Amino acid sequence: MEKLILLPAIVIPILVGVIPFALGVSLSFTDWRLAYPTNSFIGLENYLYLFQDRNFWLAVFISFEYVFLAVSIELLLGSIVAFLLSRNNRGQWFFRSIIVVPLTVAPVLLALMWKLMLSTSGGVVNYLLGFLKISPIAWLADSSVALTTLAFIDAYIYTPFVALILFAGIQNLPRDPYEAAVVDGASGWDSFRYITWPLMRPLVLVAVMFRLVVSFKVFDIIYATTSGGPGNATTNLHLWVYLNAFRYGDMAYAMSGAVILFVIIYILMNIFVRMWKRATAYM
Amino acid sequence: MRYLFFYVLFAFLVILIVFPMYWTFTLSIKNHRDITSAVPKFVFQPTAANYRGLFTGETGTTSLPASKPNFPRYFLNGVIISGGATLLAMLVGMPAAYILTRTHFKKESTRENLAFTLLSFWFGPEMAITLPLYRIYQRVGLLDTYLGLILVYQLISIPFVVWMSRSYFLDIPVSIEEASLVDGANRFQTFARVVLPLAKGGLAVTALLTFIFCWNSFVFALVVGGERTMPVTTGSLGFIRYEAVLWGQMSAAIIVSAIPAIVLALLLQKHIIRGLTFGSVKG
User: Which of A31, A221, B55, B176 is a good FRET partner for A117, with 20 to 30 A between their CA atoms?
Assistant: First the structure.
């Protein structure tokens, strides 16, 4: 009987999550358009078209590129910040207070802040770089740098996340093995290689996978800064779905792309959950 | 020497994190001429006009389209939607989490599977659900309504509440509850009289973080929200349609929208990482 209490927590997500998604999958086999109320079954046509659509594949590629860039920057900087935090006891409280701030402010708002600062007309970033004799860069408007710029904005927002997870891991490291290693004459690198890394690896993987899944479906940061442009240089799969749905009104076609996005996220998530279960078994 | 290096690196990182917020703040208290000057101004005459304009609708320019961003409305919408979503998710998710941690399941794996299935809603790509949901909401008249948004926000808030409160319930030793059960209290009485008082602090943290997540959420409000229910995240983008005209007000909007999150971040500093990892990393 007690289990009935679980019911609302299951029913509500089914109502607003599972049922819409199931409907969406079935609508991806139709010619559903934003402007028309009726639609008819067209079989696999959307999917066949999808696989020949160069813009779709480009969006898939851009999603992966974004993830790769953003997550590598975040892991690198995050490790440095975590290391710094663990080394400094006096400034720790202050520094921790500072770095949680980007994590709690809406990503859209932080992205907008950067949009203002990176502007080519009177933006402060180009102005400051001018002192280093770096000529102005069209950070968000030049298709060759826009995606990298976005990855850095992403890193501004989410590096603290990686850093704090790693820092929590460092703090929970046991002391004894290190002392034993020193007694045995191990070098600093040896300690890292044979003690720190094996103990930290599950947590590092969780942090990376977490960021991987979330940044693969990033939407707000891109939408607020470039809206997928210039051209489609920053249109990742999630944005591609949105643009096809609401700019071109082709809901069914957009939905077929959303199904592919879901499948990719689903696969990533399953890997992630398996790692998570393994990592939390230690904690 | 080594310490000096650490402190320099620290200072650099702090500046890197704080500068965008500082700069956005200065933009919000600059007048139009100072904002659009070709060389960014570090020294200027501060003005409250942008903030005043935010609440009165005065824009200080004449070249403005008919529809003006209605910031107080967006702020109020955000409070209603996030507050409503948090309340509902706590009512539904907290007891569910308790049952999930304590009730006997026929198969022990059911417990974990239920929890991870719920979590997958949090990680799913929003567009895959909101496109068909847009159609459903259109039919049943929930498009651009508070109820519609509060319901769809449950996809992020219920999983979060269940995971977070579960982690706090797990911190309470089962023996305390068993004592109460032996004394003749039933499961509900035990929950109300023994567990709730003990988990109260953690549950408050859970509620506040749920509120922040909803406050910061973007995609749902973009697709199934609208002019009437627009919260600050989608509302702040409204200033950008008139780019270079309303930068000052947009900065002011960003600052005002970010304040609730920043205040909570500083209060909940220690709990943020636990929240962001759904209770599994206790920083």
Answer: B55
